[in-house]
């Protein structure tokens, strides 16, 4: 349900020219805890959901510039029907609609809790924070001319509604056959490398990762290989 309503919210935001919210597991954990409190108390109020979100964020050591929350309860069956009913209620409320379409918040955490009576309670926490999203690295072409190898790559930093860090650099690793990976470029802004004079009869592999200006790292790309016969 969390994934479904996040998709629904982000689809609506994109249609309005806004950037989609990025998910943040730490915020999702807070929202889930608050939804569970609502279900346990059977009281639909921000106070019943737990301590103030600012206190909770500070206690968890999470950086924030601003936050907001929407809560709700529905008797529709858990799943798509519950999601659809809650979203329609929030979207029809000017105050809640404004939070869904915030031009400053950039992260979201969604929590749901369904009780024995079949009712589903929800908390959605929106936060404006620094960039916590990993950048993206992507392999380009790996080609050979004689014993010279050329490897190209690209990368990008997904754009947030606010506070996008921006792509900074790449790390490049290389290995021969099944040997250990060696870092041959660290913190480079280049997007290509040429290695000449590679010995015959071996397979050469490359992989790359990207780094943004806050130090967030992407995963290493899947290795690409080429043989020098």
Main features:
alpha+beta; 229 residues; four-stranded antiparallel sheet
Overview of the structural elements:
By secondary structure, the protein is of the alpha+beta class. It is 25% helix and 37% strand. The chain has five helices and eleven strands; from the N terminus they run αβααβααβββββββββ. The protein has helices at 2-15, 25-41, 53-59, 80-92, 94-100, and strands at 22-23, 66-74, 107-114, 120-128, 136-145, 148-156, 167-176, 182-188, 192-195, 202-212, 224-228. α1 crosses α4.
Q: Please count the beta strands (DSSP E, at least 2 residues each).
A: 11
Q: Give the radius of gyration.
A: 23 Å
The DSSP helix count reads 5
Helix content: 25-40%
**Main sheet specs:** 4 strands, mixed
Strand order of the largest sheet: 1-3-4-2
Unreliable segments (pLDDT under 50, ≥5 consecutive)?
Answer: none
Order of helices and strands: HEHHEHHEEEEEEEEE
Overall shape: it is elongated
Spatial separation of the terminal alpha carbons: 53 Å
* Class of secondary structure makeup: alpha+beta
Strand-residue proportion: 35-45%
Average pLDDT across residues? 97
What would a concise description of this structure say?
By secondary structure, the protein is of the alpha+beta class. It has helices at 2-15, 25-41, 53-59, 80-92, 94-100; strands at residues 22-23, 66-74, 107-114, 120-128, 136-145, 148-156, 167-176, 182-188, 192-195, 202-212, 224-228.
Blueprint (SSEs and pairs):
Elements: H1 2-15, E1 22-23, H2 25-41, H3 53-59, E2 66-74, H4 80-92, H5 94-100, E3 107-114, E4 120-128, E5 136-145, E6 148-156, E7 167-176, E8 182-188, E9 192-195, E10 202-212, E11 224-228
Parallel strand pairs: 1-3
Antiparallel strand pairs: 2-4, 3-4, 5-6, 6-9, 7-8, 7-10, 10-11
Helix pairs in contact: 1-4
């Amino acid at each position: 349900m969390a994934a479904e309503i996040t998709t629904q919210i982000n689809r609506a935001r994109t249609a309005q020219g806004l950037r989609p919210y990025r998910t943040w597991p730490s915020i999702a954990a807070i929202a889930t805890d608050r939804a569970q409190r609502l279900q346990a108390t059977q009281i639909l109020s921000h106070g019943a959901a737990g301590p103030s979100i600012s206190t909770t964020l500070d206690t968890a050591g999470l950086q924030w510039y601003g936050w907001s929350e929407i809560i709700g309860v529905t008797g529709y069956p858990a799943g798509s029907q519950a999601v659809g009913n809650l979203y329609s209620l929030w979207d029809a409320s000017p105050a809640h609609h404004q939070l869904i379409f915030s031009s400053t918040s950039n992260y979201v955490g969604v929590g749901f809790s369904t009780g024995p009576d079949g009712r589903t309670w929800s908390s959605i926490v929106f936060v404006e924070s620094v960039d916590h999203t990993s950048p993206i690295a992507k392999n380009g072409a790996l080609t050979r001319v004689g014993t010279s190898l050329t490897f190209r790559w690209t990368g990008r930093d997904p754009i947030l509604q606010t506070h996008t860090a921006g792509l900074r650099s790449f790390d490049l690793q290389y290995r021969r056959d099944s040997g250990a990976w060696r870092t041959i470029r660290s913190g480079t802004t280049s997007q290509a490398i040429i290695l000449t004079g590679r010995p015959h009869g071996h397979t050469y592999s490359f992989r790359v990762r990207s780094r943004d200006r806050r130090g967030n790292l992407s995963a290493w790309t899947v290795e690409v290989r080429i043989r020098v016969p």
